Every structure is written in C-alpha cells, then in structure tokens.
Amino acid sequence: MPGLVTATGVLGFLADEEAELKVFALQTLNDDIDTVWTEVAGSLGQIEALYEDESFAERQLAALVLAKVYYHLQAYNESMAFALAAGDLFKLDAPGEFEDTIISKCIDQYIAVCSSEHSSSKPSKNDVSLPALATTFASGVGNGSAVISPTTPFSQTALPSKSLLSRASVDNTILDPSFQPVKEGRSGSIAPVADKATREALQRVVERLFDACLNEGRYRQVIGIAVEAKNLDVLRRVIKRAGEDAASSKGKSSDGPTPAEELMEYALSICMDIVQERGFRREILRLVLDLLNDIPNPDYFAIAKCVVYLNSDEEASRMLRQLVSSEDRNNTTIAYQIAFDLYDNGTQEFLGKIIKSLPSGDPPKPKPDAAEGTNDAQETEPLLENQEPAREDAEEVSEDLARVYKNIRSILVGSKTIQLNLEFLYRNNRTDLSILNKVRDSLEARNSIFHTAVTFCNAFMNQGTTNDKFFRDNLEWLGKAVNWSKFTATAALGVIHRGNLTQSRKLLEPYLPQQSGLSNGSIFSQGGALYAYGLIHANHGADALDYLKSQFSAAEEEVIQHGGALGLGIAGMATGSEEIFDSLKNVLFTDSALNGEAVGLAMGLIMLGTGNVKALEDMITYAHETTHEKIVRGLALGMALIMYGRQEGADVMIEGLLNDPDPTLRYGGIMTVALAYCGTGSNKAIRKLLHIAVSDVNDDVRRIAVMSLGFILFRKPGSVPRMVELLSESYNPHVRYGSAMALGISCAGTGLDEAIDLLEPMMKDPTDFVRQGALISLAMIMIQQNEVMNPKVAAIRKTLKKVVGDRHEDAMTKFGASLALGIIDAGGRNCTIGLQTQSGNLNMAGIVGMAVFTQYWYWFPFTHFLSLAFSPTSIIGLDHDLDIPSFKFHCSARPSLFDYPPEQEVKAEEGPTMVATAVLSTTAQAKRRAQKKERAQRRESMDVDSAPSSAKPAASGGGDKMDVDDDKKSKAAEESKDKKEKEREGSSDKGTPAADAKKRPEKEKAGYEIENMSRVLPGQLKFVSFPAGRYKPVKKPTGGPLLLVDTQPEEEKSLMEEKLKTVTTEKAPVAGQRTGGGAGGAAGQEQNLIRQALRNEGNLRSLNELNELLGHRLGGGGRNNDANESAPGSGAAAAAGVLTAVDEDGEGDEEAPVPREFEYFSDGEEEEE
Known about the structure:
Radius of gyration: 39 Å
Strand order of the largest sheet: 6-3-9-8
Shape: globular
Structural class: mainly alpha
Distance between the termini: 109 Å
Number of strands: 9
C-alpha cells in the first residue's frame, strides 16, 4: 500500500463520532508519521484530547503518535513522557532513530532520578567531622568577606559583575562558593519526573531493556547503567544472574574465570578508575566483597584489592586464616602472595592491625613457663591475651602452621619485601660512575649548591644499592661540605642504603648522636644522620621509631631536632601515633623557625591520610598564630598530607584554606586538593586548579596549582600535555615551571612523545628555574628508557651532560641538570618513578615522596624525599618456602627493546708516550736528494759502483733511525690502504658494513630467556610468560615478589645465592679521617713518602722504589680506573711525574744531588692539592 501524501483527510476522521474511524486515523498516521508529521503537528490538541479521554480504548496508540510528533519537533522530554505512556506499543527492539533516541532519553532520566534518590538518602560518613573543621575556619572566612578576594584583587566582591566568569552555568563548579558542586540532575536538559505513573512507566521500560540485555548476555551494559545510576540492587542482581546463567550452561569448559568473576573484575575496574565519589566507591567495593565471599573458590586477589581500599583489616585477617588453615600448599602460596600485595598497598597502621590479629609465628612455650613458677605464669598470660585471642594458642600447636604464620608476619611487616628489593638492586646495579665523576669534576665543590647537587646525583644513582663507593673514594671532596651541605651529604647515605635495616645503626654510627651527650662531630652531621636513619627505615618504622623518638626528645640543638623530625616522619609514615604527634607538637610550640618547618611536615606524615580533625585544628590554629613563614609552610604541607586520599572529606578544609588571605595557607590548600584527589582525575579538582592557576595574585600559589594537575591526572598521562600546552607558553615563568613539573609528575617513566615535545623548547627558556624544571621533568619521563624505546634519549642525556659542564650556564640550571642525571639512572638503572603500585592502587609512599620533593624549591634537603617514589622494576620468583629458586622465564620481545642503556664511553687518559723524534727540514731534504740520485743512477747504469754505494750510508749519517721509522710508517699506511680496498671490494659483493649493522637489529630474534630476579620493566610484563616447566605463577605477573607453584616438590631445587648476605657493611666514611682503604687517606701517606725519599739525597734506590709504589697505586686505583678516580691521586701523580723526570740519566752516569728548589716545588704541589 502506498504511503500517505497528505494527512488532511485522515485528520478529519479524528473529529468523527465513530471510535473505529478515530482508531483507523491514528493507525494510519502512526505508520506514515515521518512524512506527514508537519501536518499532524497542527492537530496535536485533538490527539491529546483522545489520549486524556479515559473512555477511549486506544489511548496508548494516541500517546505513541504524540511521542513521534514531539520527537520530530525536538521536544524530547514531552516525547519521552508520551512514549512511556504508550506502554507495550513502544517497541524497544524496533530499529529506528525515534526508538534509539527515546531509549537513550529514558536511560538518562532513569540515571538522574536514581542518582538523586541515592545521594539524598545516603549522606556522607564524613559529615560528622565537617562541622568541627568549619568552626576552625569560621573566623578566617568571616574576615575574608571584608578583605579583597585573593583571586580577584581588583574587586570587593567574589567576582566582577561584568566578568565573563560570572555568567551562570549549571556545570561550572569553579564559581560555586563551596568546593562541593551543586547539580540539579545529570544535565540541564533533564526534566524532573513528578508523576508517579510516569516514574513507574520509566521503571518498566528500563527493566524491559535490562531483561533484553541479560537474555543476550550483554551484562556489562547493564552494570554500566547501574553504576552510573548508583543502583546497587541492579548491580547485585546482574552479577548473580550471570553466575546462574553460567551454572545452567554446563557445556562450556571451566578453565578460565566464570562470567560472574569477570563481571566483578569489570565492576572493580570501573569502581577504581571511573567512580570519583569516595563514599559511593566504598559501597560498590563492599558489595563486590560480599559477592566474592559467597563464591566457593573466589578470586582472593580481587578480595585483597577491596580489603585494602575499604581498610578492613578483619576481612584481610579472616581471609589469610582461611587460606592457611586449609594446610594446602597452593593455598599457602596464595596466602603469601596476598600478604605481599597487602604490604604493597596498605598503610603501616592497617598492616599492624592485621599482624596483631594473626597468631604468633613462634612455637608455643606456655607450659614450661607455667611449670617453672606461678609468678611467671601470671606475668606472661596478660601479655598473650593482649596480643592475640586465647583460641589462637590451639592453632599454634602445629609447627608447620607456626612457620607459615611467621613467614606471613615477616611479609606484612615488610622486612621480606625490603630484603628482596635490596638484594635485587645490589645484584643488578648498573650505576655508571663515569657520569658521576664528570658531574663532580664539572661543579666546583666549594660552592655549596654545587656540592649539594653532586650529593643528590650520587644518592639517586645509587638509591637502595648500598654502594657508597663514591663517598669513600672522594673523602677530600666530601670534607668540603659545610653546614647544611654536610647535613644533606650525611642524609644521602640513607638514600643509598634505603632498606638496609639490619646494618643501619652500624653504618651511621660515626655520625649518630651519642647517648653520653659528648659531641660526636658537627651537629649538621648528627641531624643528617637521624634523617638518613629515617630514610633507611622509610615507611617501615617497626624497629626504628623508638630509637628516633628517644634521640628526638633528647636533642637540644635545633639542627638535630630538624633531622630527627624528618626521620621520625618518614619512618612513622601513616602510623597515626598520638604519642609521636604530641612530642612533635611540643617542639613546634617553641616557635623555632629552624625546626618548625620539619616538625610541621613530620606531624602530617605521622597522621598521613587519617583525616584526624583534632590534629588539623591544632595545626590550623598555630599556623594563624605564628609569625614564621617557614613554620606556616611546614604546617600547610602537613595538613595536606593528613587529608591524603580523603576526596570529598577534605572539601571543607580546602574551602577554608583557599579563602585565607595568607598566600602560604592558600598554597597549602592547593596541596590539599592535589593529595586529597590524587590519581582520581576529578573534573571538579581540575577546574579548581586551572581557575586558581590563572587568577591568584601570588606566583607560588599559581605555580603549585599548575603543578598539582600532575598529581590529579597521573593515571591518565596522555591528557596532561594537551591540558598544560597553553600554560607552558605563559608569560609568567612560575606557571611555565609548574607546567613542566606537572608533565614530569604525571608522565614519569612513560617516555610520552607529546610531553617531550612540550619540554624540549623549555630547556632553552630565558628563565633559569624554568630550564631547571624542564630538565628534571625530562629525566622523570625518560627514566628507564633506551634508544630503541625512545630515540630521543641519547640527545637528552647528551644535553644534560653539556649543561652540567657549561661554565656559562646558571647555577640553578646546572643544579637541575645534575639532579636529572641522577634521576634518569635511579637505583642503578633498576628503578622507575611509580605513583601507583603494580596492582593499580595508589602508591602512598611514592605520592608523598613526590609531593614533598617539589618543596626543594624552598629547602634543598627535601630533595631526598624523591627516593620514596623510586620503585624497583623486577620479577622476583619465590617458592612456597619463600626461597629464591634458580629458573628462567620467557620474554617474547626483542632483547634490545628493554635492554639497559649503554654506559658512557669515556676517553681513557693516555699515559706518557714516546715523543716522536724531531726531523729537521734540512735532513729531510738531504734524504730526498740522496734517494733521487740513487734512482737516477739505477736507471743510467746497470753496473753497481762500490764506492758510491759505500758512501751513501755515510752521507745519510744519523738519519738511519728516521729511515726505519719512515719505512714502518709507509708500510703501515700501505697495509691500511690495502685493507680498506679489500673492505670496499667485499662490501660491493656483500653490502656495506654500515648497512649490515643497521639491518642487524631488524633481524634480531624475538624472544629470549630471563633469569629470576632480573629487571623487568612495567611495559615488558605483557611479553612475559612462564613456559611449561617446574614453576608456575599463582597470578598474572605484575612485578615485584611473585609466588610460584612448584609442580615437582619432591625433586631437589636449586636456589639462587643471595650475594648481599656475604657482604659486610662498613661504617660510613667520615671526611678528614685517614683510612688505608680510601684514596683520600692514602694521599697523605704518599706525600709523607715523597718527603722522606727527597731527604735521602743521592739515594737512587729509594727514589725508584717510591716511583714503583706510586705507579702501582695509580695503575690499580688512580687515573686509569674511572670508578676509583679521585682528586688526591692527581697530586700523587704529579709528584710521581717529577720523580720520573729526575731519573732520566744514563745507567752509568753519576747521580747529581737534588737541588733545594725541587723540594720547594713539591711543597707547592701539596698546597695546591
């Protein structure tokens, strides 16, 4: 039947009295509505009257026609309402633009309605603490109304009335007086649904849509809608339905994960990566955790991920007990792996609670103690009750279980992970000392900023490797450090030996303060030693906190208190210890600017992420009372650390700090935004930061606002270059510096080309500190990159070395270049900068370390905090006994793709060579004339006259030696020419050698074997596989310790030797001490030997012996050995050269007495050294 051309006649039937004609008219219009809707639009009143007439039988048909007409009129809200009223006539499965548009509109409406009901019925748990903080800021906010707004200095109001920024916008949260955005629905086009019938119809349509998706197995679409609508009931129903469907269809193999487990993993990934509200995220995780626990054999690693984020130590303890109590070897191995994951992602406070709830790993010994005496039994029983429940004693009867629990406790404490990482870094150390020596030689040590720069470069290069050889070989250079440079140099030992827990006290003994109260060297060295002690025990203060507390309390010097506070903060990170906080607060109240900054920071580190309201009140109050800017800055940073990861819970404090007239507290407010929302990608936080970056009147605040973008977006590094592209060209150098650092923080270790393209022009910026930031950021981005992965690495490394050696470069830029050289080769080239763990959670220590590192702008010793962000990139396979088996796994990539970058080629310093014998021009001419005559005579006569031939040698005279030399040279030249010609001939047949060299990487065979405990980069993990063999991993490799299932436990296993256990740690080197092992200590001995030898006038034997001794020392550890090169050796070499010059006479000649001038000359050499 042909379609309608005009609807005029059909519309006439709508006014007819016969109901059948009306129905016919509606059906005809419905079929051809796309062509005649313009005519029907004029009769909407008649059709609406039919819809509203309850006696009309086909009301739903009238509603459907109305919906289609309103759809063409682009009145989508009215169209959706009538489509919902059409009931079953609205076909969800019918293909068409109308159906797709209305379904999309229904889903949007459903999401808006459900999310609004969820937010109104589920208040935030943090609301209890917010009023307390609001009272703290009441005075500041109240006074702020009378003060000029810091973001708009030329107006008495919050925003100028005619400003573009003042235009009303529903989604513009920047202009909202509160940091919390206020949204009326999902978007401005969503209409509120007041009619109950319409809401029920909407629910029915969405349910029909869900059923259609579930029947087709499209579970993920339903989960996405449920999460966005915040409807957890639908989420639970979908996951259970997937499990039931999988159980009903038994035909499929059960090798892989079930659909329910895949869906829970999908929900988990959405929850962690997309959901931005902290409260709703916790609800989803709690739901997923409950569902996982209902499965007979759940994914324990997914449970561990939920448990860490929910901070549920009871669940973690129960899961570990369940796995261990089964006494199955595989379950024990899984328990070990979960313990490693918990340590990798949990705080010290969280891990401490789990450890307390687990049984002790010691064999039970209560009965012998009780038998010895009743008093002992009475003393020990309460201790056992406090530490663990009485029922745990029964579990400890089994020695096997006791051993397992002991291993789990050692993993949760962290000692096992730290020991493994230390062994890995020591074993695979690839530090290029020639670069370090070049930096040392290029920078003048008497300048404190340059001395500090070399210290940082050495510390970062050798982070965690325990290799302090550079310090031991350069004691004279180390001795040039004064005051705070000495503090920093001593603290560098903590970075180098980070994790060396057992030897830390012995190592730092020469510098640590003595209990007797006697002076033990410089107070700066003592303060630096306490700082170093904290760095060694970073985020692992189990054994160090008591010692640091006692030293900090006993210290009277402000410098020692400064170092002790930093050490306490790093070691006690996130412990939440009220005792340590109170002792720090007491020192803070002495109002000392010198230690106040460190104490304020340490208070934040102790309470890291706790959101402790009482602590915040104390710190805010004192920040307003004190007059020292350094104390205010330390407290501002400390408050930001307390709000780490709190998201919406920090909004009230952020609002108060950002409205404060003090720029230092506004700086703290920006840091609070960065740390509270770190890694979330929150649009709300990004808008706030961008607004302040272009509006605040203080350069420091604008700089940190741009820099903080890196902390918010480090999980989406690709979006940062586009966001800061315009800011990197700002007229303000502080904004340019902030954009450079934001790129470095967010794109660290990625080698992202877009970020490098933005940073390369900034290396030539006219402002010195912008160049400094660009160099540091480039090093962060290029860390662990080689030329195969990124061809620009070689050029950037060359630029860094050039800047360090450039005499005309500014000091700040050279400082940044030396830091960059240390960062790009961090941890012996085995570390990357990781702000998230291998399993995808936030790396708390890394984020905190990076945040405090950015404060080096104000205080250089904070630079050492960057070492907390260095994470080893390795796979360390462990068997069920936590031993390190010797085995290999496979990598399917080319070996050159993830290989170490090549070491720097150092031009060997050539020793004294034979000087070529001088040839006079007259001699050369005479030789040429003689040769010419000889050739002429051979041509003229075949007879050889004996007289001329005998005279020729006499004529040449003393030129015999030169003839021989020239013959040799000419022969060598001819041979080299012949070789080149042969090579050319060969290359014409086989191709040029250069071409072969270029083709070789292309023909490089893909796939190679990797030894256990080797470097494996994050990007390399996807190529790693474990071939069929004895060991199989318990989970997909994510880097770090990886538990292996031994498929052949009966056979003898071969273990890897732990090299670090065979090394004895010596005490730290002290500048000024004369030790036989160091080059600096030997310098004085050599000079004394020179003086003694020179006093023995005419004694050739003593001079020769000394010359031989010095030559031996130089050959073994002097100038020819780059690793041991040191400044004192050069003085000895000069002395040795002079002695050699004295003894150049013939063997039979008589020795002349040594003149007095020579002795004076040697004294001058000593002074120069």
